[in-house]
Protein: Phosphohistidine phosphatase
Organism: Primorskyibacter flagellatus
Amino acid sequence: MRLILMRHAKSSWDDFTQPDHSRPLNDRGRRNARALGAWLRSNDYLPDKVLCSTATRTRETLDLLELGASVVYPEDLYHASPETLLRSLQGASGNTVLILGHNPGIGSFASRVVAHRPDHPRFGAYPTGATLVASFDIPRWADLSLNSGTVDAFITPRDLAEQP
């Protein structure tokens, strides 16, 4: 089984009166989301199921990834805790699941779900667009336990911008 944990791309703060849930991506966030989608496709990290927060910025990130997977929008993924993310994943179907969410929950869950953290200077901060790909030797998500995943990849939009 494979898990992709992604924090939404960079959101806009142009309108400070806008409710947090409604904030869209900014221009950089839209560029980064497209680049992350290209990276996922080029590395064959293609989900067959997506669990996505209902927030505007997560939905927009997902649309720009252009992955074509089946999507579910659980209400409790908006600013979800690591415990909520674990429960959601344990109830998921699909061999490769993408969870698209928010910090601090998504970054904390990423740290807790793998046996060994990747050697990347930005992993602890889990910046916008940060994406962890991890594999698990389990037959179904219901059997998932913390500290059991093997890191396949970890990347940030800045890493993609620095690649030739």
User: Anything to note?
Assistant: Helices lie at 27-42, 56-65, 82-90, 105-113, 157-162. The two ends are 31 Å apart (CA to CA). Residues 27-42 form the longest helix (16 residues).
